Amino acid sequence: MQKIQLGTSSLQVTPICLGTMTFGEQVDEPTSHAILNRSLERGINFIDTAEMYSVPTRQETYGATETIIGNWFEKNPGARNKLVLATKVAGPSRGMPWVRAGEGMTAADIIASCNNSLKRLKTDVIDLYQIHWPERNVPAFGQLYYDPTKERTVTSIHEQLEAFDQLVKAGKVRYIGLSNETPYGVHEFIRLAEQHNLPRVATVQNVYCLISRHLENGLDETMKRLNVSLLAYSPLGFGLLTGKYDESGAEGPDAPKLARLGKFESVRKGRWGREEALVAARKYNALARANGMTPTQMALAFCYTKWQVASTIIGVTSIAQLDEDVDAWGTTLSPEVLAQIDAIRKTDRDPAH
């Protein structure tokens, strides 16, 4: 895998990134360490985590994923220098007071969260420090519409950038990124950074998969023109695009109970649990099989080969899943298959947006 430069930064990463949000909930520490070892063996030099992980978030597991990764770094002292490490500062609480108190995300919150992440990760520097979701009110995580009456901004984008500037100048953060962002947010972060000589956003980490391509309705143009790289998360649609739920659905008697949709009610109640998302996923999965691919191969190949995507974040619970996802690299989709994918989107749209 040829390495990709992230935005205007000097970070060079593999086009596959290991996502770690299952570590500490679905995956215990020994298995997490085995997955990290295998990922490094397979040539992946990019891992992504967050202060609020593992997921689904609970007070008891807050920070668990970073702690597991930090323990791995401690056991494998040479590993840290081989990897680009990305983590995230949580935005406003969203009903999780153990993650963030109050309605906003202050400059002090950003700095304190970074210091705490560094301690858990047992490292001196974070290569890519991202805002997990915007401080301002935006439609995210399955919400469809922007509602200006819900605006409760506490900290301006300029103030947030000044906090990141402190961290960069202190040598604790190399580059910054955003997540779950909108075109307006990306433009405003870039505009203010250039106007005031503050850190420039290198990446945006947003959902992007066959059943959620809303990014292609404008955000992709913003990122292309501003030279900001996309880190695509949930390329397998929380498992819907693996085919594991094709027969049973997420709540059927034969649903895979240990998979996220089968195990966690909070996930089933969100965008990935929508019936229309399962209906669309079944169509894509059938298309893959009809063309000699597994659903996983086609869904990952879609992300791996799209011009919009710099690096695709894969989340796994076993070494076997990791190998399957990495082995899908190099799979190509014919113009005919891509046309059929677009035909499904034309009728089913983006049901997991």
Structure description:
The chain is α/β, with parallel strands linked by helices. The protein has helices at residues 29-41, 64-75, 107-121, 157-169, 183-196, 219-226, 260-263, 265-268, 275-290, 295-305, 319-327, 335-348; strands at 4-5, 12-13, 16-19, 46-48, 84-89, 126-131, 173-179, 201-207, 229-233, 309-315. The protein has an eight-stranded parallel β-barrel, surrounded by six helices. Strand 8 (201-207), helix 6 and strand 9 (229-233) form a beta-alpha-beta unit. Helix 2 crosses helix 3 (107-121), helix 5 runs parallel beside helix 6 (219-226) and helix 9 runs antiparallel to helix 12. The longest helix has 16 residues, at 275-290. The radius of gyration is 19 Å and the shape is globular. The mean pLDDT is 94. Residues 15-345 form the NADP-dependent oxidoreductase domain. It comes from Caenimonas koreensis DSM 17982.
List keywords for this structure.
single chain; 353 residues; alpha/beta; TIM Barrel; eight-stranded parallel β-barrel; two-stranded antiparallel ribbon; 12 helices; 10 strands; globular; AKR_Detox_Biosynth; AKR; oxidoreductase; NADP_OxRdtase_dom
Topology:
Elements: E1 4-5, E2 12-13, E3 16-19, H1 29-41, E4 46-48, H2 64-75, E5 84-89, H3 107-121, E6 126-131, H4 157-169, E7 173-179, H5 183-196, E8 201-207, H6 219-226, E9 229-233, H7 260-263, H8 265-268, H9 275-290, H10 295-305, E10 309-315, H11 319-327, H12 335-348
Parallel strand pairs: 3-4, 3-10, 4-5, 5-6, 6-7, 7-8, 8-9, 9-10
Antiparallel strand pairs: 1-2
Helix pairs in contact: 2-3, 3-4, 5-6, 9-10, 9-12
